[in-house]
Amino acid sequence: MKLLEEILAHNEQFVENKDYEKYQTDKFPNKRAVIISCMDTRLVELLPQSMNVGNGDAKIIKTAGAIVAHPFGSIMRSILVAVYELKADEVFVVGHHDCGMSSLNAESMLDKVKERGVSEETLATLEYSGVDLDRFLQGFDRVEDSVKHSVETIKHHPMLPGDVPVHGLVIAPDTGRLDVVVDGYKQ
To answer: How far apart are CA 129 and CA 27, in angstroms?
Structure first.
């Protein structure tokens, strides 16, 4: 059975059995928080449990490395929507140790891109169009520095109200331990 078929078969039973009822909530986060987290599979259940965040408590935005790479990109837009439209009052950037974005090698990734059939011509067109692929595919050396950078990008956004604390944390994906990198109340 292909994955899509497996998912749809499960979903049919999920709906038929009304398993969704235990997840019903509204769109406003109970804890008035928005969390930017890495998409790492180890964090799917660990992160909310380690932060005491249940269904309906927070807006959770997942992205590679918990990186806010562009101040006017979709991650920042989502944060602003959470603050202005969905009543979030605090922002948490949560990176993690042993992240796939740490020391990401653009050259190695571009080799994989080519192996999967993307042509040199396409990559050249992107570069001629002003896309710096090395920068676009850049990772980070220290997760703490990356978290600080994302916190600064959010905190200094011209559309974010000054009274919104922006916190930076790093989680250990093996234990769930959270370490504070930036205490948004002290900024």
So the answer is: 39
